[in-house]
Specification:
The chain has 444 residues and is an alpha/beta fold. The chain is 32% helix and 20% strand. Strand 15 and strand 16 form a beta hairpin. Helix 2 packs parallel to helix 3, helix 5 packs across helix 6 and helix 6 runs parallel beside helix 7. The structure holds zinc ion. The site of zinc ion (ZN) has 6 residues, from loops. The site of zinc ion has 6 residues, from loops.
């Protein structure tokens, strides 16, 4: 896609990107002379050399001469980190829709498609397509969950290994095994999948919604992780039921087992509709357990508060998202992410970090001020993934940047910004997403 600015072939030698407008929260060691406006935006110039940011200085502090590009106050962000996706499910929509938009309909449809179609070639083609979308939009790191219910685990994980190698240097890919918590009642399977996570460099995961009596299963899963030095990542309370308490159960289990490392938990929708005193206690537990929360606003808006399958159409009454502001105020790191794309759990989406941010701002009121919320799709998820060079702009860091025509949040959030430029290691990449026709032979 043609970007709004025609980047010359940036030479390896020093070059300056002048007059950039940057969310100050995304800069490490903001220059003391930089001015930051009421919206938290700084005017800066970036000195690029050998694919890295050699220095960051206040706009107008000396980069006017010599080779460079005048960005005319365009916004510059670091590349995105998308910490909760399902690229093994992505893009099956043309052959397997969600019949009614409900979560039960989604789970049943996805399972049917998995059983019928998910051979290695199919999974590879769709994962590759998803990563190409994300890359074109300016994403540098992705964590995806991988359906691992037998026999799918033996099919998908070797593909994961290949595709991670194929995308190395463009997208840092992390992978989590996805399995309902009751799947671990089969301790043989639990041990097998945990050993596979060691073999394939994966993260141990489980889905917990409203199931009772999960303490023993959680202790087993956490024990598997401790014994093997694995990280953990859970799907939690993706529902609108005030009785859902898996969030608390997970925090208590991590404390009980002295896990000692941060743990990422996704969704946590029910926190938004539980009694306030319960929520306060849950947040205390989460802080003690070192939980990090990722909210999936687009998917939550789609699946939550749907009528039961077969019931008449009904307008949703709540937004489905968790309590992002309250979690953040309690000191719990909060990220936002894509979740599903063009599959029965979310019919839309394209792994565009800016779309996630824009939709989250609108859905969860991440405004007045927007402040440091840009960290939720950049620095915070990159920290969750342990990637210290991604999701921020810093001297010595890679020149991996997304450059928007927009000069302000108003201009940024009102348009899709598909004419953005993306620099990777200081060079402009092709920002045209792949053509859906490439999947015609795969998903029809
Ligand atoms: Zn998910």
């Amino acid at each position: 896609m043609t970007s709004f600015i025609d980047f010359p072939d940036i030479p390896d030698g020093p070059v300056v990107l002048r007059n950039a407008t940057v969310p100050a929260c995304l800069i490490d060691n903001l220059p003391a002379t930089a001015t930051v406006d009421a919206d938290g935006l700084a005017s800066l110039e970036f000195w690029i050399e050998n694919g890295r940011i050699a220095a960051i200085s206040a706009a107008g502090s000396g980069g006017e001469t010599g080779p460079g590009v005048d960005l005319r106050n365009s916004m510059v962000w670091p590349c995105f980190a998308d910490v909760h996706t399902h690229i093994d499910k992505g893009h099956i929509w043309p052959r397997q829709r969600n019949p009614d938009g409900t979560r039960p309909g989604a789970l049943k449809s996805a399972e049917q498609d998995r059983n019928a179609n998910w051979n290695a070639e199919d999974v590879h083609a769709r994962m590759n397509f998803s990563l190409a979308c994300a890359y074109a939009h300016g994403t540098a790191a992705i964590r995806t969950h991988i359906d691992s219910t037998p026999p799918q685990h033996k099919i998908s994980w070797p593909v994961v290994s290949d595709i991670r190698d194929e995308w190395a240097g463009r997208i840092a890919l992390q992978t989590v095994c996805l399995e309902p918590i009751w799947g671990y009642a089969d301790t043989g399977f639990g041990t097998e999948i945990a050993d596979m996570m060691v073999e394939y460099g994966g993260i141990l995961g489980a889905v917990l919604n409203i199931q009772d009596d999960t303490d023993d299963l959680l202790d087993f899963v956490i024990g598997l992780a401790i014994d093997r030095g694995l990280d953990l990542d859970f799907h939690v309370d993706e529902m609108g039921d005030p009785a859902a308490r898996s969030f608390d159960s997970i925090a208590e289990a991590l404390i009980r087992n002295d896990f000692g490392k941060p743990v990422n938990v996704g969704h946590c929708c029910s926190l938004a509709i539980r009694p306030p005193d319960e929520v306060a206690h849950a947040l205390d537990l989460a802080a003690e357990a070192d939980l990090r929360v990722v909210s999936l606003p687009m998917c939550n808006m789609y699946l939550q508060d749907r009528p039961q399958p077969g019931a008449p159409a009904r307008t949703p009454r709540w937004r489905g998202v968790t309590i992002l502001h309250e979690l953040k105020a309690r000191g719990i790191p909060v990220a936002i992410a894509s979740d599903n794309t063009r599959d029965p759990l979310y019919a839309y989406g394209d792994l565009d970090g800016l779309e996630v941010f824009t939709q989250a701002v609108r859905t969860a009121h991440l405004d007045y001020p927007i402040g440091d919320w840009p960290e939720a799709i950049t620095r915070t998820p990159a920290d969750t993934m342990g990637l210290a060079d991604i999701g921020r702009l810093k001297s010595g860091g890679p020149a991996d940047m997304v450059i928007f025509r927009a000069r302000s949040y108003s201009e940024l959030l009102c348009r899709p910004q598909h004419d953005r430029a993306v620099l990777r290691a200081g060079r402009a990449i092709d920002t045209m997403p792949p053509d859906y026709r490439e999947l015609d032979t795969v998903v029809g």
